[in-house]
Structures
1.
Amino acid sequence: MRQDDTIAAVASPAGTGAVALLRVSGRDALAVALKVWRGGELHPRRAVLGEVCDASGKGIDSVLATFFKGPASFTGEDTVEITCHGGMLVTQRVLEALLRNGARAAEPGEFTQRAFLNGKLDLTQAEAVMDVIAAQTDMALRAAQRQLDGSLGRQVTALRDELLEALAHVEAYIDFPEEDISPDTGAVLRGKIAAVKTGVQRMLSTADEGRILREGARTVLAGLPNAGKSSLLNKLLGFERAIVSDVPGTTRDTIEEIINLRGVPLRLVDTAGLREVDNSIEREGVARTRRMVETSDLVLEIVDASQPPAERVTLPEESGTKHLLVLNKADLGVHPSWEGRGGVEISCLTGQGMDSLTDEMLRVLAGTGQGFTGMEAAVNARHKACLEHAAAALQAGLQELDAGTAPEFVALDLREALASLGEVAGHTDTEDLLGVIFSRFCIGK
């Protein structure tokens, strides 16, 4: 992407609506807009009513235009935003007029990339723009907004500043080897590095929460036939999505739906009952169920609690899948043999125990006694990879410091950790990295 030209795109979603927004950004943004503009003078940060005209001077649409003088704009450049009527044809005609008069079509994410390159956003904030757009729940939206406000970037910057101070101390010793590091000074240095490592690990602890808030927790409903898996899916969804029948094997394929569970998105997957079958179609459904279990975040094992335990679902222990036993049909009475086995008693028929099930699902998913807080900076997969690299480098530096290794090797590890932390917020960005990140954006953003 060239950064010295003027770009234009439709910034609102495709389709028909009341209004549509077009954005023009670059050093010639105002000049391009004025070539198609008929109306009052465009003053910074003031919406003006006018008309966009084609090459012959014929009016295309009555619009509102707002001029933002750089650097006081989203991109940091001169920007003009045009609000026209939301028909697909009229929107396209306004965009064509802008493109014919000196602007080029923006690439996906190019406006946000320019905001990053012009210092208006760090890389974590730029990524948060897409997270805000894609948020499916209030909690996911709040987490994205905190990141957009710079919470994650500030945390990383603070850790980098602490690490820079420690690295400067080591570099000074390399430059002036005659100045021995006293035991007290060495302990302080080690403490600073260890503190940075603790901060990195604290941020890493939010990775699972971040992934779940962005993508949804894959929650598989598994169990024997007729245990109530489809009934529970319908109960959680609030409508009849799956067919419920007393006939074993009714569900033969997976059914997936997304729900908002107190702000946490869950991808509920109803599966075929786990049993030995001769029917090839149902056998494939059982195989798919087992694959779903292996890749899930949480397995709800549904059992008929009114009957004594016969056989149980076999879960792949090596997968580390979180598991919750759900004792369904509690309205019929729970068989005494289920006592002491844990689990949550519910009734899909009467709704008994559904609040308790929700509490327990969120607790198990979060892995704590408090459930999802949504208050910490929830890192994404790219952040996680950078932070893991930084933590490993910091651990190596600590080990070398403890072993009395030459300070040059300690400095190398600290520089590596510093570079990894810098990559989180984009302080050591590369063109390839930016291309991967901004390729996920929609055109106009």
2.
Amino acid sequence: MPDSTFYLGSELDRAVNRMDFFRLYKALAQNHDCQYFLLSEVMGEDEGIDLQHVHCLYSLPDDYSLL
């Protein structure tokens, strides 16, 4: 059983770009015995849908299908 607390502390404070966050989330997923992760920004109902500013970070392989 993985440790339920995964301290990112100073690593999170130093994360400044997409690759830094990718490494942090990958380590977090692996700590919880997950092979992949997917992180996506979900807009609030009052903001509407604007697909020009979608943020997504994932470690899924290219041939992985969500459907």
